[in-house]
Amino acid sequence: MSIEGKVWKFGDNVDTDLIIPARYINVSEPSELARTCFIDIMPEFSSNVSPGDVLVAGRNFGCGSSREHAPLAIRESGIRVIIANSFARIFYRNAFNIGLPLLESAEAADQLQAGGRVLVDLAAGRIESLDTGKVFSARPIPDFMQKLITDGGLVAHIRKRTTMRS
Amino acid sequence: MPMTITEKILALHSGRDSVSPGDFIEAKVDLALAHDVTGPIAIKMFYDTGVRNVFDRRKIVLVADHFVPNKDISAAQQVKRLREFAREQNLDYYFEGGEAGICHVILPEKGLVAPGQVIIGADSHTCTYGALGAFSTGVGSTDLAAVMATGEIWLKVPPTIQVNYTGARGPWVCGKDLILKTIGILGLDGAHYCALEYTGDAVKGLPMYQRFSMANMAIEAGAKNGIIEADETALNWLAGRSTSEPLILRSDPDARHEKRLTIDVDELEPQIAFPPSPADVRPLSGVDKITLDQVFIGSCTNGQIEDLSDAAAILKGKKTARGVRLIVIPGSPWIYRKAIEEGIIRIFLDAGAVIGPPCCGPCLGGHMGILAEGERAVSTTNRNFIGRMGHPKSEVYLANPYVAAASAVLGRIAGPEEL
Fold first, then answer.
1. Beta carbons within 8 Å of A133's beta carbon, 6+ residues apart
2. Chain B contact for A17, CB < 8 A?
3. What is the CA radius of gyration of chain B?
4. Which residue from A164, B46, B64, B297 has the fewest beta carbons nearer than 10 Å?
5. Closest-CA residue of chain A to B218
6. B5-263: which CATH topology?
7. CA-based nearest residue in chain B for residue A97
8. Does the beta-carbon distance from B189 to A63 stay under 8 Å?
9. Whole-angstrom distance, CA of residue B240 vs CA of residue B233
10. DSSP β-bridge partners for residue A127
11. Architecture (CATH level 2) of domain B272-418
């Protein structure tokens, strides 16, 4: 699957309170969550992001709370993939579980510029800057996670398993 | 094969003789937890799996603790969903109202946690139970839904970082300071995907409530779990609370630790984490005059009865500074009652504090003490990210209960020695 979109750029240690502040998680409807995504650090994000856009961040993206509202809000806002130097572990699980793929590449995280255009081949882990032509390769997604994605996320994975058993 | 305590627990729960860091395993779960924020999504995902009944109604705990007493209609709807699900599934453990407190305080207090267990909770501070020698970690709602459906979870076995605390703590130095110091050294992702194993004489000498603070904040260094081997202190604490048979496991002397770190606590002062990072940690003596608008004592990090009595010992016979709002929230109804019986609540009230009902309170900026633009607070909680307790331009300084109490009296960040 390939994704082409605009880059939204963030720094290191973007925590879940910055992705969606706790005062907005008294609801769980994804479309409502998307409205307040990044409201404290980038208030223009939710109204300007387009489906297919790509989020690029530094180290430890999604650290802090376990709230799945964070990847839900990002996915629902239209972002199709997040590229970062590294991800906090609960965020990493949550994103794959809900079908939001993540790629790790320190070089891409460093060199892709805000507002630039990027082309991402998820299966190959290939990231291309359409502005500079530079190509980056992401760390391969572990086989176990690949299987989750192939099954369509964790819920579908479980559904498949329980159906097979019965 | 030599293993760490974390590896031993995971091997036992996945039916293997041994596991190594990086192995993907499916582990059996002894206890699963969700609350009013993460529960409703987990419930929806649970039914989406097609499974009709939870794997074991005695092993799932739901606690309404974040936005309770219900702060608005949306929060009330979320709690209602939690309550309905508990009834639908006939769960043994659903805590709300006068039975509820902060989940990470309630679960050990009710005897639901035992050494050697695997505990999975849809809350990042689920790592708290590692203080009792359990493997416990936080996950999101979908992971929890899968646990409720199958009783198992997929995990990648984490490498272990062992932190050895040596020496003797000075007065006013708590487990909170040991962990703040550790996070300051490691950074917000210094224990990324790792198990943090706390050991050494200084940890063995810590009372249980301060061990909970240490395990609780493992996540702030990016760790998967924080763990302390259960010893006599832990077993004494469990006696009369837990009826489960404890499974006492220890790291082998030749177990592989990815990293070993030694922290000498002899010279350690109370530590302050500056906003907006729990890893920007400085010794109290290095803090300039920082005036305050609010002080909060409570949370899953420092909401135990002894945390409150430590703060009360400082506040006894004193008043909070003019212009400072002191908010105290006991971690559970049992703690609240005990604090009344022991005269602790009276000390807080005499000092001018507001006492809140057991809940997460202002820790996550939900309600019960939100900060306005430009306001500053000292808090005994675990996070001080931008906007964590209110306005994005408010500031939160993390500290232990002694420092929080002294700061409330002086109206600026200060230690008890200044009183």
1. none
2. yes
3. 20
4. A164
5. A64
6. Aconitase; domain 3 (3.30.499)
7. B142
8. yes
9. 13
10. A120, A136
11. 2-Layer Sandwich (3.30)
Query: Which residue in this structure is represented by tokens 């300084």?
Result: B397
**Cα-to-chain-centroid distance, residue B256:** 27
CA torsion, ordered B66, B214, B42, A139, to nearest 10 deg: 130
For residues B284 and B272, is the Cβ–Cβ distance under 8 A? yes
Chain B CB contacts of A154 below 8 Å: 142-143, 145-146
- What is the rounded CA–CA span in Å between residue B32 and residue B62? 9
Burial of A139 (0-12, 13-18, 19+ CB in 10 A): exposed
Give the three-class secondary structure for B224.
Answer: coil
Q: What is the rounded distance in angstroms from the CA atom of residue B125 to the CA atom of residue B382?
A: 9
Give yes or no for a contact between A97 and A154, defined as CB atoms under 8 angstroms apart: yes
Question: Rounded to 5 degrees, what angle do the CA atoms B2, B121, B81 make?
Answer: 165
Q: Do domains B5-263 and B272-418 have the same CATH topology?
A: yes
Among candidates B301, B265, B264, B237, which has minimal Cα distance to B172?
Answer: B265
CA A158 to chain centre: 22
Q: What CA–CA distance (Å, rounded) separates B253 from B256?
A: 9
Where do the structural domains in chain B lie, given as residue ranges? 5-263, 272-418
| Beta carbons of B312 and B341 less than 8 angstroms apart | no
CATH number at residue A125: 3.20.19.10
Per the structure, how many domains does chain A have?
1
Overall residue count recorded for chain A in this entry? 166
Most distant CA pair in chain B: distance in Å? 62
Q: Which of B44, B48, B140 sits opposite A94 (nearest CB)?
A: B140
Q: Is A156 exposed, middle or buried (0-12, 13-18, 19+ CB in 10 A)?
A: middle
N- to C-terminal Cα distance for chain B?
54
- Is residue A51 exposed (0-12), middle (13-18) or buried (19+ Cβ within 10 Å)? exposed
pLDDT tens digits for chain B (419 residues)?
999 999 999 999 999 999 999 999 999 999 999 999 999 999 999 999 999 999 999 999 999 999 999 999 999 999 999 999 999 999 999 999 999 999 999 999 999 999 999 999 999 999 999 999 999 999 999 999 999 999 999 999 999 999 999 999 999 999 999 999 999 999 999 999 999 999 999 999 999 999 999 999 999 999 999 999 999 999 999 999 988 889 999 999 999 999 999 999 999 999 999 999 999 999 999 999 999 999 999 999 999 999 999 999 999 999 999 999 999 999 999 999 999 999 999 999 999 999 999 999 999 998 999 999 999 999 999 999 999 999 999 999 999 999 999 999 999 999 999 99
Retrieve residue B164's tokens: 């050895």
CA B152-B157-B158 angle, to 5 degrees, is 130
Shortest distance between the Cα of A132 and any Cα of chain B, in A, equals 31
Which residues of chain B lie closer than 8 angstroms to A159, CB-CB?
48-50
ipTM for the predicted complex: 0.92
**What pairs with residue A55 in β-bridges?**
A8, A82
Find, in chain A, the residue whose alpha carbon is nearest to that of B126. Answer: A66
The Cα–Cα gap between A23 and B91 comes to 29
